[in-house]
Amino acid sequence: MSPSEDKIRDLVSQGEGLSTEFKTCRSQLSRDVYESVCAFLNRHGGTILLGVEDSGQVGGIEPDAMAQIRKDFVTAVNNPQKLHPPAYLSVVEVEMDGKSLLHVYVPESSQVHRCNGRIYDRNEDGDLDITDNTVLVAQLYQRKQATYSENRVFPHLGLDDLDRDLIAKCRKIARLRWEDHPWKDMDDLELLKSAQLYQTNSETGTSGITLAGILLLGRQLPLLNTVPHHRTDLILRKVNLDRYDDRDFVDVNLVESYDRIMAFVHKHLPDPFYLEGTTSISIRDAIFREVASNLLIHREYTNAFPAKLIIEYGQVRTENSSRPHGFGRLDPETFTPFPKNPVIAKFFRQIGRADELGSGMRKMMKYSRAYGGADPELVEGDVFRITVKVPEFGERAEPVAPEVTDPVTAQVGAESGAESGAESGAESGAESGATRVLLLLQGQPLTKSEIAARLGLNTVTGALNRTVRRLLSNGMIEYTIPDKPNSRLQKYRLTATGKRLTDREGTGHGKQE
User: Per the database record, which ranges form the Schlafen AlbA-2 domain (predicted)?
Assistant: First the structure.
């Protein structure tokens, strides 16, 4: 999704500043465009508009020069001899007043970048060469180290703590995606340095694998020794709402974690047929590819809050710790993408596990309505949350029977056993507390106290409260006074789904008297 013409017009009207730069580039790239890229990477990021003069006059780019300018720019920013470390940037062609421009969004980097061996920093609307100013350079390094925990260096970690086979696999994937990828001729240590996964601490002078490196490629034991709280909890919870129906406790490196998340999604979520033009695509994979990468890339790994992906009836929820740059629900039309872990994000893009910054979220927005009938909800805060609606086929599953130790089940089973003999008592005792409540509501709506009394309980127990909440959540029963859930006159009655279930139970076991 490209920036709208109105958004481009707003940028032009505001003029150049700390986060906006114009370059004329009518028939060829301006020489100093890479200095601006370097300065934005080193400061807080920003937007470069190619085809706009410094005064704000929109001249546009000549149509015959557009393809070459775009190619030259992308090639240069990925060339470590020009820009080091290289940058992976999104370049989008846009229109304004009938003229073609190029929109380049440059995110803030967690690294200190050099252009032609010089360090540039952004100051108001200019790019300053600070290479020879030792104070400013030291402050820049300190700011990067303090802001991004992924850059923390662990001197005791070495290549033996990483999965060397996985490094080879990632090199092969990158080479298949781009035949001339720089990694193809690098050994493992050179690759790690190129990907900024092996660094030198500017304060202590010690070198080693970074937090990003051990997270992305680490063997399980060294990884958990370094980050003992690292895990992603994958949960299916549709029938047994108190526990789970399926679970995968993922505590491996991020590359393997991504594959485990997608395997869990493939196992438990439908993949309906969808045509885009004349091509069939998997919108499930398009959506959850972004969900999985977001869950792994944008997490704050120094926080022990466990990340979760929970598949429920009709929706999927994720939670992960975050360093928020805002609070509240994100608006896809106005949000500005901000990389929480740029090194991890860049590595994922190199191996095809993530899209360009911002484009993945827009793709998720694009396909979610077709997939689940509603837009996804993304809420930023200290815990970042995503909710995606998903299709369900067939009726809602019945609630699972609680264990026989449930006080409701145990007491009813014992009572039935005393009245009807050992055989019927054992059968009734094995029935779930939830099913007994449903059978009681066949005749008429009842209050919670009336349900407890008919189950032979002296009072409303915690187990009964949980059973009622579970039945409400599963859509088996409903309030008679829905606007006042806590009303003293509140009763519960069967829904259409609950009636169908009790009809089957009645046929199989005889109705509750």
Answer: 16-127
Question: Which DSSP string corresponds to 338-371?
Answer: --SSHHHHHHHHHTTSS-STTHHHHHHHHHHHHH
Q: Across residues 391-397, what is the average pLDDT?
A: 60
pLDDT in tens, 164-213: 999 999 999 999 988 888 898 999 999 999 999 999 887 778 899 999 99
Host H or E run for residue 91: strand 90-96
Distances (CA, A) of 463 to 379, 409, 431, 441, 473: 33, 9, 15, 17, 15
pLDDT band at 162 (very low <50, low <70, confident <90, very high): very high
Domain chopping of the chain, boundaries: 1-146, 148-228, 232-389, 407-509
Residues 499-505 have a mean pLDDT of 72
Largest distance between two CA atoms of the chain? 94
End-to-end Cα, the chain, rounded Å:
62
According to the CATH classification, is domain 232-389 in 1.20.140.10? no
Integer Cα distance of 312 and 316 in angstroms: 6
Report the alpha-carbon distance of residue 33 to residue 51 in Å, rounded. 12
Among the listed residues 125, 145, 251, the one whose alpha carbon sits nearest the alpha carbon of residue 203: 145
Give 446's strand partners. 492
Residue with tokens 């007491």: 411
Q: 407-509, what's its fold?
A: Arc Repressor Mutant, subunit A (1.10.10)
Residue pointed to by tokens 């990884």: 223
> Six-digit token pair at 338?
């901000």
Q: How many CB atoms lie within 10 A of CB 342?
A: 26
Q: pTM for this structure? A: 0.57
Question: Which CATH superfamily groups domain 1-146?
Answer: Schlafen, AAA domain (3.30.950.30)
Q: How many whole angstroms separate alpha carbon 464 and alpha carbon 461?
A: 5
